[in-house]
Amino acid sequence: MSASLIFLASTTSAQNSKISIAELPWSGANAIAHIIQAIIIGPMGGEAEIIKGTSDSSIIFASMDKGNGYVDVHPDIYMPIQVHNWNRYVKENKTVVVNKPYKGTQGMFVPNYLAAKITSFEDLADPKIAKLFDQDGDGKGEYWAGDVSWTSTKEWQIKFKSYGLEKLWEPLIISDQKFQEKLRKAYNAQTPILFYYWTPEWIFSSYDLSQLNEPIIYEGCQTLDLEKENWLEVSTFRCKHRDTEIWVGHSKSLEERNPAVAKMLTNIAINPETVNEWIMNIRYNEKNAHNIAKNWVEENMNIVNLWING
């Protein structure tokens, strides 16, 4: 084989490298993962697989950092929730590349049937209110803070401490899937439930929910040191969260292993309303994520071509 043919073969092989996409346990990430897969295996004519069980963002970032193809794409990076991984892999190592972000919000919510009683964190300081949410009989109200692996789960515990609520409230730390079942049962029974959540997400189309008011953001309202062993004692958080920026990240190694896909991933620009539509179809209407993604790509090739061609 001539040198030129060897070069052509190796280039073609690199450009056709199979893409591994992380499967995260929330609907928005699931929807975006399937859209990316549909673009790669559809108009781009490549191979892409959604890797089950890759729900820990720290492991996903470490895999993208190595660039060995185990996980190539993180479809839903929430910032500043993932600030530790972002600083290490995006800013310092420069081994993870990101696209153009879209906006999301996060806060503490109750169903609207409780909105007349509870509108702000000040209301949570009332022992009678806290007692309404006591699920285990220990005298403290429970709130869902999030999954054990999430940075935001620590942040909400810090907030409740900083607002002086730790004697009345305690965090419930369970998976999103288990929480969603609790929310469904509570909502159907019209019983109290207090929980952290974020937009975009399907639950806001399925349930009437009300976000609690918090102090506005001001200089010095948060001092977080989440890496310390005594993170809860040394950190403070006395204001609302900033709006999040949500990104698609990919391993920089794709620029050599599959430059066409790397370019497409960098060019992705997502509309939050479109994400809500995907989420609703997948979770609320129980439609097949693969089929939803395939149909959306076929019907929106004007957008997809912009992502592919830049």
Features:
310 residues; alpha+beta; D-Maltodextrin-Binding Protein, domain 2; 2 domains; six-stranded antiparallel beta sheet; two-stranded parallel ribbon; 43% helix; 19% strand; disordered N terminus
Quick gist of this model?
This protein is an alpha+beta fold and 310 residues long.
CATH topology of the largest domain: D-Maltodextrin-Binding Protein, domain 2
Order of helices and strands: HEHEHEHEEHEHEHEHEEHEEHHHHH
Number of strands: 12
CATH superfamily of the largest domain: Periplasmic binding protein-like II
CATH-defined architecture of the largest domain? 3-Layer(aba) Sandwich
First CA to last CA: what distance?
35 Å
Number of domains: 2
Structure description:
By secondary structure, the protein is of the alpha+beta class. It has 2 domains: 3-103 and 244-309, Periplasmic binding protein-like II (D-Maltodextrin-Binding Protein, domain 2); 104-237, 3-Layer(aba) Sandwich (D-Maltodextrin-Binding Protein, domain 2). It has helices at 3-15, 27-41, 57-66, 83-92, 127-132, 151-162, 176-189, 203-206, 231-234, 254-257, 259-267, 272-284, 289-299, 301-309, and strands at 19-22, 48-51, 73-79, 96-98, 102-111, 141-146, 169-173, 195-199, 209-211, 222-223, 236-237, 244-251. Strands 3, 4, 5, 8, 9 and 12 form a 6-stranded antiparallel β-sheet that branches. It has a two-stranded parallel sheet with strand order 1-2. Strands 6-7 form a two-stranded parallel ribbon.
